[in-house]
């Protein structure tokens, strides 16, 4: 800071000198006055390397002491040209790239893309195909488990953002068991590439009625029995903690109108009190067969939480984990149907046309807009990222709050920079 | 520092017969052969014994943080379903040593744009002040470096200087995060020193002395004589003291100055290598020091639950009360660790609210109450202690019922959302 002041002084002297050389006589008295509308303003760069910007988000904070006058998000540090890459790849080749978007919920990203391509393929009247029943069940099963894993990570990191370190490790402990399950089904822990166009990967087959399949399902059952009571424990540990409440309730209230106007979706939208979930309201795949509730934020006067604040957004995720457990339990009760896991697709060559398909990923509406000219490669592919929309609300949400609140907001809108930047 | 220490031993005047003299006469002399003992002067022996003790003290106290760092990591690990460090030495016991060696060999980076002198000086200011506090803490019957007649006052004064080091570190780093952290820390430490000092005053009012020795002597006799139970007001004062001292040593839930998720590492962001280690060691030394002060002021000091080792006779009463003191202090240290790995962190304004709107008024009320108590019961009698303990128990039961009822109300409407 001292250096900045020195620079400023030097600049002023220079300007004065220049004025002196010119035709106008130097008015030293008035030139010394520095033009500083906000005398106490300090500009701080938060990120791109920062423990709690959840990746490589850079925030330009204009601070007045601890109070944030403005927080301007700068994105693009993780931009990998996903959309441009896609134009040069065939459809099945694009799937691994979707893994890298929201890498903590990669199954859902795979699925969102595959659903869009399947929609596009279905426009071809001559080549009819159907995703097999077994594949649909496996997709829902895996993606709901992936939703739990994603929300667990969100819960853990949010606790750490607020200053409680222990929930983070609890969350990772439980997420580890899920990752082992995913590893069984597709061999990968983070970037799965499991869901394929027309079904799911056959590489590691879970043959119908085999011992492997039974073991796999038993393991999920054991996990659910272990995990379901833990959600309540985590609520006791963190959600109802009074310091946690102090930090998050009533902070950065996003009204329903604001959430809609910024295009916030998923838990962020429901945290603002809008009852909207694509799985229920525009059911895709086989979601219409399952019985589950959509948690929507309500005022909680005992804790001081109001609809749309950080606490509500966070609580929606905790409740959604329970709903995902319910869905998975229903699948386990029915058992996986027999049959193949891949549709009989000779080649993925969609007809000329365009499609936009959206699905409910853990972070909100994940949309894919694909234009095809009838070749095996898309002409244009656009991903609609839920995090990107939610992040755009940050600037308005953070005005006039404190530095610590910025962290609370970033955690509560639960961004993954891989998806924001694509 | 050794200079002060050895001088401190010479002004030792609590015991009628100097413990060192006693040790030399009773233990050392009989061990010597007849011919040597005749030429052996007791005074020389005393000097040697005292220097030896000072050396042990100077060597042992800095080892405390090493133990505490490992303890913290192990405790944290247990809270988090982990095992903690396990690789270096048996059960990872040598991990801190390995870390220390690693830090020694790290590059010592000095920000080129910063204020070099202050940057170099800051860790030593903090380190020195943290350890200077130990000079006035009575670890046991005769284990006290210096028996000031203003012991507690000295401790308060010295620990206030730490904030200077923090500001120096933050300012000289030429980093905005460091500056934010150090200003947070300055505001926090200065604010919380007020309830801290006011809580100490209640004790001083009852004991009528600032000497740590006198404060411990006043609590001799058993748990019911501990100052925490002596009046209902000191009971409150203890909690205010303990919570404020957590804030004073910058630990969760008051660890804003080094809030990792907000301002990276706060005032020591730019430090590396051994200078960083000095901050780290000072933090843990501080933690032990405030716990030791809390034990001395409110929980009977070294007078306590364990039978002192004087029963073994002779010069061994040098250890008098030390184990009990360490156990009690470690209990409080463990409590601090427990809190750290359980609770989230407060925000700056909430931290200040807690201090200025709650702690300071309550602390003033405590002083008033202690004064009135002193008027009603000029002498401590079993009756006054009995009344005090009765009031405390009734208060605790009431608080338990109140909190229980509130929690019960809270948990009722919750399940509907599931």
Task: Record the SSE blueprint.
The complex is a heterodimer of chains A (422) and B (418).
Chain A: H1 2-21, H2 28-31, E1 41-46, E2 58-64, E3 67-74, H3 82-86, H4 91-99, H5 106-122, H6 133-162, H7 166-186, E4 195-196, E5 199-200, H8 211-239, H9 242-248, H10 256-262, H11 267-271, H12 278-281, H13 310-334, E6 352-361, E7 364-373, E8 378-384, H14 386-392, H15 394-397, H16 403-413, H17 417-421
Antiparallel strand pairs in A: 1-2, 2-3, 4-5, 6-7, 7-8
Chain B: H1 2-10, H2 19-31, H3 34-39, H4 42-60, H5 63-79, H6 95-105, H7 116-132, H8 151-172, H9 176-207, H10 212-218, H11 227-230, H12 232-248, H13 260-263, H14 273-298, H15 322-340, H16 348-376, H17 382-411
Instruction: Report the helical percentage of chain B.
Output: 55-70%
Task: Write down the overall mean pLDDT of chain B.
Answer: 79
Count of helix runs of chain A: 17
Number of strands of chain B: 0
The biggest sheet of chain A, with number of strands, parallel, antiparallel or mixed sense and barrel status, is:
3 strands, antiparallel
Largest interface: A-B, 44 and 38 residues
